[in-house]
Amino acid sequence: MSDFKHKNNFLARWLEGEVSEEERKRFEASKDYLAFKDILNATERFERPVFDVESNLTAQKEFNKTYNAKKPKVVQLKLFLSAAAAVVLILIGLRIFIPQSTTIRTEVSQIKTLTLPDNSQVTLNAGSSIEYVPKDFLTKRKLTLKGQAFFKVAKGSTFIVKTKNGDISVLGTQFDVNAREYRLEVHCFEGRVQVDNDKESVIIEGGKAVRSGRSKKMLQFEIQDQEPTWLNGISTFKEVPLKQVINELERQFGITIQSGDIDTERMFTGFFENKDLNSAIKTCFEPMNINCIFINSKKIKLVNK
């Protein structure tokens, strides 16, 4: 077989049919041909595996896409779980180390009196709230007020009432704070009270009051009452915009008042009783030449006479 095996790659050329007719006849008449024929017949009995290039390439691409898509998701999920665990631990830590506050609220037509941890008393007018930290209150007598409240402060360290329009500081006294919208009004009935806002700091004594508006300028005036009149069911006003009176009527009676083209910036001085709506409406609007039309039991429309 060696005669044909190494001669110009004869076997490869013969398999491909590239030898001459003379070379083919001479090879098939030789002993080498018989030996090679047996090998060739044996190899032809093996099944050749079918390899589909297109389908295998497509399958490989799908595998790569799935693998690449899954891999970052696992990483992102791990990062998310780690972050979530960290947030939970932080929240638990905050709950443990940051004292929890208590909020007391009143709804419309409601007045509520409560005693603070230092034995100071607070009475909330309708639509008001206070927030404080019970755990720290004996050492840090501080609370936040929204709306109106009357305070009877027990003697002790400085007592601070914070509002969005200014802060009030006292040691032991009785005072009323009304902090709504942009207005702040403080009445001192006993002791001394310090009132601070962004522009001024004022100290008033019993029988005095102070108020500030949009300009933050504080105006002081005298009061005759020994306690807030609203504690006895009477809302009193001294030179305030009519809008303030309308808002108080809505809070005390749980109604809606449509002012229409009424000038709600007109000044009003007077009062109304918090138990009788018809009487309150008449007391407030008749002196100002305003008619009241009841649309229903909870809605009133104002019109000029």
Automatic annotation (TrEMBL):
MF annotations from Gene Ontology: sigma factor antagonist activity
Pfam families xref list: FecR
Entry-linked InterPro entries: FecR (IPR006860), Ferrdict_sens_TM (IPR012373)
Keywords per UniProt: Membrane, Transmembrane, Transmembrane helix
Alphabetized Gene3D superfamilies for the sequence: 2.60.120.1440, 3.55.50.30
Residue ranges of the TM segments: 79-98
Domain FecR protein: 103-194
Keyword Methyltransferase: no
Name of the featured protein: DUF4974 domain-containing protein
Species per Swiss-Prot/TrEMBL record: Aquimarina algicola
